[in-house]
Amino acid sequence: MTGFRNHPMLELRRPEVRHDLTAALAALDRELPLQPETLVGGEGRRGEGETSTDPCAPERVIARLGWAGVDAAERALDLALASSWPVREPDDRAGVLERAADLLDERRHRMTALVVREVGKPWEDADAEVCEAIDFLRFYALGAREMAEELVQAPGERNELRLRPRGPAAVISPWNFPLSIPCGMVSAALVMGSPVLFKPAEQSPACGWELARLLLEAGVDADALALLPAAGDLGRWLVAEPRIATIAFTGSVAVGLEIQRRAHEAEDQRQIKRIVAELGGKNCVLVDSDVDLDEAVPAVARSAYGYGGQKCSAASRALVHEGVADRFAERLAGAVELLRVGPAEDFATDVPALIDPDAVAKFGRYADASKGAELARAKPAGGPQYVAPLLVDGDRLPAETPVLREEIFGPLLTVERVRDLDEAADRVQDLPQALTAGVFSRQPDRIDALIDRLPAGVVYVDRAITGAIVGRQPFGGNRLSGTGARAGGRTYLRHFADEQVVSTNVVRHGVVL
Amino acid sequence: MDEALETRIRELAEQLWRVEPSSWRRPAVALGRRQLGSLDGRPALRSAMFRFVDAAPACRGPLDRGAHLRAFVREVDGEPIPPTLRPLRSRVAPQPLLAAYGLASGPATALLARQFIAGRDVRSATRNLRAMWRQGQAFALDLLGESTVSEAEAEAYSKRCAETLRVLSEVTSEWPEQPLLDADLHGRLPRANLSIKLTALTPLLRPLAPEVGAADAARRLTPLLRLARELGAHVHLDMEDFDSRETLLLAFEEVLSSEEFRSAPSVGVVLQAYLRDADETLDRILSSPAMTGREVPPTIRLVKGAYWDHESVIAGQRGWEAPVWSQKRESDGCFERLTRRLVDARDSVRPAIATHNLRSLAHAIAYHEQRGGTPAELELQVLRGLGDELAEGVARLGYRVRIYTPIGDLVAGMAYLVRRLLENSSNEGFLLRQRHQSLDALLEAPA
User: Fold this and answer.
1) For B267-307, what is each residue's pLDDT tens digit?
2) What is the rounded distance in angstroms from the CA atom of residue A423 to the CA atom of residue A320?
3) Of A209, A66, A202, A58, whose CA–CA distance to A120 is shortest?
């Protein structure tokens, strides 16, 4: 893409940069709790009864608000259908995204601090997330300007491929990337001319609120973007609603499949909905006998335990060649024991608290299922939502254990010993999920042969398997892990538009006029 | 420009330049160099060979090693392949062929490594160290090892350091007197000289929270300093990449400002001239309570810095301005400026100028002379395997030379070895520049 550059991350290793962020966090704390509103037609409506809290200190309330009801969603949908946003010049819409990117850049410290607080994400990941949000805005703006495609032309005819807005899009976003993922989905829909009904995750309404306000401030028409903070029931309403043309969803495989089932149940369906879904993974890292453990061990640890494993790309299983399995497990166990569990705002923290009590309970079930097979555990911090990160010997788990098949979304990694990486690839192919995968090996032909056998949407070689960057690692899964769109890739925007081919006869009276 | 200084730089450089190459005495070295030189201008082959050298010690036996070599060689595209490697390019390679290549490449890699690494451990390296001492060369020993990711590994490294300090003081005590190496104007110089990597002393290195790693490293450094004091040894704290710099400086400041170590042991730190803020770092070191008022002046080793590519890549991936100078002449200019500052501070520190750059080296000596310094007041350092010719030249000028000498096993030493090979076969590398460039070009003033 011409002229695209990733937004620079903050150089957090410099003390003055950390100081600025700490100051921004203190300033944000003075504003708490935020009071996100339901935004429809540019008008805000405040409610009450619901809160979002700091996962690392649940007594700290980040936002007080009320859920939006179906009535608000109905109004938003009526406005969206009547909006003139789809007929605004594509260049205009791209310009709005670029202004939003600039605004977000101006507010990056505050937004980073909000991500740290509302979802308990450590600074480095929170900063990367703000950069990703800015990247999405700029990348999609540029992409929308460069969509034109040349068709084959023949004498006497002119062929064009045009892209048409599809109509209202519902964006249902997750809490683990509370800013960048909704920013990517909302801005892709908007730039292609779809008005958006945006339902942020229940756990992160304040991030959604700040994002929606920023987009409106940047110039999105008031009737083209509604913010509908709500629980899952409103999501289900949006999915079933026949007037919604596109559903952009990031979340679990179970919900993703439910969306597929429910999307077309209404009687008066007028279109096949486009469903752009990013779903979960059960991501494996394959470690060959010739690896440099100095590189592989820290990279695997970072992939598995960064943000407490609460990334869809996180490493969940390590499949290690028997020639290095013992050394690998021993060194990794040593590293896991040293993981620092603590508040996200502490720059020394490796693993923060889990997002909510449900996540803690779910993690507890997998930890229980791993009893007797533990290789290492880190010390948890004091607080209700902290858990002890675990390294588990996969070979000592029962054959059909869910620990080896289900997405855990917590700080637990299993290590399995394999005869060779072909056996590892067999095990990976047995899984229905195919989001990310990692290969650590130093023999080029072996690496290539292995990659051919891995169904994952994104394969990382000799590096950590998290941290995809816009334009560099377009992100998305295969099989049950998604519908195939690659966020931050050149083809992503196509999913948010209808194609229309126009072929015109330019022959009049036997001559080309 | 200081004409007199420039004239003297030229004279000194010519004397260093004319040193007889000693490689005829070490045919393996000459052979290795010729092969490395032949990789110049063949980037794909060079990359393939270095990736092989990097992976070779991790292979399981000759067959696996041969298969790796073949995979790397087959990746080379559009460059002539040396005839000896051509059979590997064929579409099918029978196992005996792979095993044969694997068998042959093992010793070849080991031979290459021995140029730069003096032995597996301190006992096996003592013969080398004694031979160097006889020739008038002191050493700074460096323990190559795996990186430290766990508590146990930090403890193991710390034990290794302690053991090495003991062995070094034991064996060096029987060596004959070498007046230039044994004392300078400030007093006695310890013979046992160990470089310590603080990043290996702690598994808690966190660039975002340097105080955490610093406290942990300091905890393990303290007993090592006590041991060095007891043995009369020198401990040098090595500098590594920028991510770890603040941790290192904090640990060094914390431990050495304690009253306990005010009189001993002899200690040193490293200053990296390729960093844009090297001048400020020197200010910080010189004014640190860890430095001021020590009875034995601390040694400051000035180096250019070994992580330039690493720093540039990291910065490039994250959109940062790199902490290192982007142009070589900027680093060289900074090196000369810092050389002058260290020479001028020689009443309170022991300057050690570590370089293979002919101009930087000649400049250090010329400036030192100009400021009325005597040879005993300035130490020059080179890396084993890379600066042998320069070391001989420096010694003939009557200056003290210390060879930075790594020891360790081959697997652990690969990261170090590959970096040295890259330097040695690149256009910037001293040995190649010597072949390709005129003395005039080498001696151009950097500023």
Assistant:
1) 999 999 999 999 999 999 999 988 887 888 999 999 999 99
2) 10
3) A58
A310-351: per-residue pLDDT in tens? 999 999 999 999 999 999 999 999 999 999 999 999 999 999
> pLDDT value at position A19?
98
The token pair that represents B178 in the structure block: 């070498």
Chain A nearest C-alpha distance from B90 (Å): 14
Closest residue, chain A, to B208 (C-alpha): A13
* SS3 category, A122: coil
A253 and A367: one domain?
no
Give the mutation candidate from B88, B149, B157, B416 for the A interface (greatest A CB count, under 10 A): B149
ipTM of this complex: 0.93
A-chain residue closest to B51, CA distance: A442
Q: Tell me the C-alpha distance between A241 and A222, whole Å.
A: 21
> Is A284 considered catalytic here?
no
Closest residue on chain A to B322 (Cα): A11
- Residue A360: pLDDT over 70: yes
State the average pLDDT for chain B: 90
Beta bridge partners of B140: B404
Q: What residues 56-115 of chain A have any CB closer than 8 A to a CB of chain B?
A: none
- For residue A9, which residues of chain B lie inside 8 Å, CB to CB? 318-320
Phi-psi sector, A126: left (phi>0), alpha (psi -120 to 50), beta: alpha
Ranges of each domain in chain B: 3-114, 118-407+426-442
Does A443 contact B75 at a Cβ distance shorter than 8 Å? no
Give the pTM.
0.95
Mean pLDDT of B82-89: 90
For residue B67, the distance in angstroms to the closest alpha carbon of chain A comes to 8
Q: How far apart are CA B113 and CA B57, in angstroms?
A: 11
Q: Nearest-CA neighbor of A109 among A92, A133, A126? A: A126
Q: What is the span of the domain harbouring residue A90?
A: 64-279
Size (chain A), residues: 513
Residue B427 pLDDT > 50, yes or no?
Answer: no
Fold type of domain B118-407+426-442: TIM Barrel (3.20.20)
For residue A164, what is the domain's CATH number? 3.40.605.10
pLDDT value at residue A3? 86
What is the model's pLDDT at position B432?
Answer: 47
Q: What is the pLDDT of residues B193-210, one digit of tens each?
A: 999 999 999 999 999 999
CB contact under 8 A, A294 and B147: yes
- Percentages (nearest 5) of helix, strand, coil residues in chain A: 40, 20, 40
